[in-house]
Write a structure and sequence with these properties.
globular, 246 residues, 60s Ribosomal Protein L30, Chain: A
């Protein structure tokens, strides 16, 4: 008991040091996720990898040469494989955030993939193998408690789903050191849990591609951020005229 208490105190101390010492938000999240992955986040503190899997882990792959992948390419790939209402791609503090609804990936209240999920994950794995960005996978649930085995809690279900995605990417050749996974239960909703529609939105997996994508050059970002020209304009003999509201 004394040894366990001492280890927990030391773990807390190093997490506080990491939080205070790392000012960059992206590096801070990576450091925290590294600690979570090392100590295990499944029920009982189990690690996602057992001893046999550790022995059979592949060797360190050769460095990846970044390809010209950008935000629009990811959107296009997902549009070809997922219903428009089943995903979202946006830019956040960490980098590019890919949001996939749980009903796109998983059977209800399990971490078992649906048949159509493999197509989506294969396409994403192909993109991630062309870049060298870190990948952070977060599982989210709605607020309805999970009380059935084998999970018994929303924490366990969200963690298991995030780990299932991580392990699939790992099997597709993405190095372990580039990935982290964790569950956030129902604590970061994006909609109200008072309605079924809101709960469907909250049940999701978010995949963060940390940092800038190699194809997102400053010039491309400027073009994407520029507002489109209003339709109510016309040009005549070198002069541009704007039609006013009536």
């Amino acid at each position: 008991m004394l040894f366990t208490s001492l280890m927990l105190i030391l773990l807390t101390f190093f997490i506080v040091l990491s939080t205070v010492g790392v000012q960059d938000f992206r590096k801070q999240r990576l450091a925290f996720n590294s600690l979570l992955g090392s100590f295990g986040i499944l029920p009982g503190g189990h690690s996602p990898y057992n001893a046999e899997e550790k022995m059979n882990m592949p060797g360190k792959p050769s460095p990846v040469t970044p390809d010209t992948v950008d935000l629009n390419q990811i959107r296009t790939v997902l549009k070809n494989t997922v219903s428009t209402s089943g995903f979202g791609v946006s830019e956040g503090k960490q980098g590019t955030i890919i949001t996939l609804k749980s009903n796109v990936l998983f059977e209800q209240e399990t971490d078992a993939f649906k048949a159509e999920a493999y197509v989506v994950l294969d396409e994403l794995a192909s993109i991630f193998n062309r870049i060298d960005n870190h990948i952070i996978i977060a599982g989210h649930t709605d607020s309805i408690p999970v009380e059935e085995p084998p999970f018994f809690s929303n924490w366990a279900l969200s963690s298991a789903r995030a780990l299932a995605v991580l392990n699939y990417f790992r099997a597709k050749g993405i190095p372990d050191e580039r990935m982290a996974a964790y569950g956030l239960s129902s604590h970061e909703p994006i909609s109200s849990n008072a309605t079924e529609y809101g709960r469907r939105l909250n049940r999701r997996v978010e995949i963060a591609v940390v940092g800038d994508l190699p194809g997102d050059t400053p010039h491309n970002k400027m073009l994407m951020e520029q507002p489109t020209e209003p339709i109510r304009t016309f040009q005549y003999k070198g002069f541009k005229f704007r039609m006013g509201e009536q």
